Amino acid sequence: MADESESVTVPEPGEDNRAEAPETPEAKPKKKQRPFWQELPILVGFAALIVALLVTFIGRPYVIPSQSMEPTLHGCTGCTGDRIYVEKLSYYFGDPKPGDVVVFVGPSSSWNSHYKSIRSSNTVVRGVQNFLSFFGLVPPDENDLVKRVVATGGQSVKCCDAQGNVMVKDNTPGSDWKSLNEPYVKFNNPFDPAHPDIPFGAGRAFPEVKVPDGNLWVMGDNRAESADSRYHMKDEYQGTVPVKDVRGKAVFKIWPPSRIGPVRAQDPQTN
């Protein structure tokens, strides 16, 4: 006979045979959404924080105020100069290289003698300007300059060879002078092959300078109109710029539309 121990049983008379209904949780009240005018300050604050972090650690835009980097970068008094984007990430992992176009703060009084603060004399307005500068909406109150790296720490630089080119060599025994190839230089001081050592200021020539480790020798692409390292050889750095004063590497022209395009690094020491 079959085992029926697990068979269905019939309820006794009067026994409720209806399935017991499961308990349902009480409906939770819907969370009331904040009105947009309350959320807007939070969104603005969050966006401002992101911008501040980008400006501080990633990069920021700068305006070219002069013609010292023509034709690579355009600028002049009273005109609409190029707006460039300068990134900082590259120099977290290494120092500037020959050919890089860098933005740096004037490292000595020699560089900064003609700089005038762009901040208002009004305390309140100046505070607002400083606050907005933190978010990249107002330029920093410092003498920022843009030049091209020609020589780096551990090298010597001078001008000129018989063709009027700048020369560089490593400061190691047996190193020879190398003439630079600088296709980006379109405007230069005059050069007389018969008198290559014309006193500085009247031509291209400048004496040998040894660039200390951790420093850079920088020059404008427009050599005839650039007060670069050559003009500051009497300061404490012999015209060189400490790497710590470099703000970043110029990588892109972002304005005006007709000038939009990359800012290219061209190593003059590679022939």
Please tell me about this protein's structure:
This protein is α+β, with helices and mostly antiparallel strands. The chain has a single domain (39-262), classed as Ribbon (Umud Fragment, subunit A). The chain is 14% helix and 22% strand. It has 3 helices and 12 strands. It has helices at residues 36-58, 109-112, 123-133; strands spanning 59-63, 83-87, 101-105, 144-152, 155-159, 166-170, 178-179, 206-210, 215-219, 241-242, 246-255, 261-262. Strands 1, 2, 3, 4, 9, 10, 11 and 12 form an 8-stranded antiparallel sheet that branches. A 4-stranded antiparallel sheet has the order 7-6-5-8, with no helix packed on it. Strand 6 (166-170) and strand 7 form a beta hairpin. The chain is elongated, with a radius of gyration of 33 Å. Mean pLDDT is 87; it is low at 1-11.
Topology readout:
Layout: H1 36-58, E1 59-63, E2 83-87, E3 101-105, H2 109-112, H3 123-133, E4 144-152, E5 155-159, E6 166-170, E7 178-179, E8 206-210, E9 215-219, E10 241-242, E11 246-255, E12 261-262
Antiparallel strand pairs: 1-2, 2-11, 3-4, 3-11, 4-9, 5-6, 5-8, 6-7, 9-10, 11-12
Q: What general outline do the C-alpha atoms trace?
A: elongated
In CATH, the architecture is Ribbon
Question: Class in CATH?
Answer: Mainly Beta
The CATH superfamily appears as Umud Fragment, subunit A
The amount of helix comes to 10-25%
Give the N-to-C terminal Cα separation: 104 Å
- Give me the count of strands: 12
What's the quaternary structure here?
single chain
Radius of gyration based on Cα positions: 33 Å
